[in-house]
Design brief:
Blueprint lengths: L1 E6 L11 H4 L4 H14 L3 E6 L3 H14 L3 E4 L8 H8 L5 E5 L21 E4 L4 H14 L1
Parallel strand pairs: 1-2, 1-3, 3-4, 4-5
This protein binds 1,3,4-trihydroxy-5-OXO-cyclohexanecarboxylic acid.
């Protein structure tokens, strides 16, 4: 089964971000990790990253039109993007929100997620394993 794993702004620069918060995996390594974990669970995962809100909305429309399950790390869009929330709400297949860090344990502006309310669930704080746990949850939901 085909799924989309969508990543928001600045996640392609994981190597430059605070490793105490985001760990030491580079984004290309994260893509390999997610693809391998997905394949083990029988998913064909397309892992994408964008810094553009418009691009992310386009991908969510693609998922909505094609009834494709989504795992999304909206990154900073999480905290303020109503247009990403509205687009994510159009996805009727399962949609799981993930974060590498635990935003609730960080600055106050990260305590709000405008996405969580329309996601089937949120997994945060486990580093790359957040994606793995989301894939496992998704497998349970669709099989
Ligand atoms: C993040 C958490 C967000 O607060 C932050 O803006 C990110 C990454 C995470 O994966 O921990 O860019 O979504």
């Amino acid at each position: 089964m085909r799924i989309l794993v969508l990543n928001g702004p600045n996640l392609a620069r994981l190597d430059l971000r605070d490793s105490a918060i985001y760990g030491s995996m580079t984004f290309p390594d994260l893509v390999k990790f997610i693809s391998a974990e997905a394949a083990e669970l029988g998913f064909d995962a397309e892992v994408r990253q964008t810094d553009s809100e418009s691009q992310m909305i386009g991908w969510l429309h693609e998922a909505a039109d094609g009834q494709i399950p989504v795992i999304i790390n909206p990154a900073a869009f999480t905290h303020y993007s109503y247009s990403i929330r509205d687009a994510a709400e159009l996805v009727k297949a399962p949609l799981i929100e993930v974060h590498l860090s635990n935003p609730l344990a960080r600055e106050e502006f990260r305590h709000t997620s405008v996405i969580s309310g329309i996601a089937n669930g949120t997994i945060a704080g486990f580093g790359p394993d957040s994606y793995r746990l989301a894939l496992m949850a998704l497998a349970r939901m669709v099989k």
